[in-house]
Amino acid sequence: MSLVKPSERTPLAYQIGRESIDEVVYDFYDRIQNHPTLSKPFSIVTHWKEHKEKIAEFWWVVLGGIPNSPYKYDPVNKHFAAGFTQELLEDWKALFFEVLSQHLPLNLAQAWQSRVELIGGNLLMQNDRLIQKILK
Ligand code: HEM
User: Would you kindly state where each structural domain of the chain is located, as residue ranges?
Assistant: First the structure.
């Protein structure tokens, strides 16, 4: 068995390709706008084109791509303001994996979804911390 050093592995962003990342993100947010539970919190988004572009760039960088745009993110406060909950996160993850599975081979879909799990868990923890802080 030949081992590939982490520094020599092709980042997931390049294995998937920017075009496919854009397609996944655009399809996902098109479906969100008609989703039974997710459409409501997402009704605060008014500029969908900008939102999709920003999130596509977010994933490109999270998956190891070299940044193209200098976006600033404030995800914890923005998700708190949008009414983020564990239930909504479960729905979000299920829809995301459905979209991933329709666009990508299973190994790439699973690899991307494992990043979703990490970030989702982190968002939930930080959202809970923010709630505890406010309740104090
Ligand atoms: C793993 C799951 C999720 C990831 C990776 C994710 C990622 C992101 C990112 C990167 C942004 C941009 C934040 C910024 O501009 O600073 C965003 C915005 C947003 N997210 Fe999520 N999100 C997730 C789950 C959810 C869930 C469950 C909800 C439901 C409440 C949600 C609702 C929103 C809304 C409404 C915005 C737009 C906020 C605004 O522009 O004011 N997200 N998300």
Answer: 13-135
Long-range contacts from 18-23, C-beta under 8 angstroms, 24+ separation? 18/60, 18/65, 20/103, 20/104, 21/56, 21/59, 21/60, 21/63, 21/65, 22/56, 23/103
**Ligand 1 within 6 A of CB of 42:** yes
Distance, CA 97 to ligand 1 centroid (Å)?
16
Indicate the CATH number for domain 13-135.
Answer: 1.10.490.10
pLDDT per residue over 35-93, tens digit each? 999 999 999 999 999 999 999 999 999 999 999 988 999 999 999 999 999 999 999 99
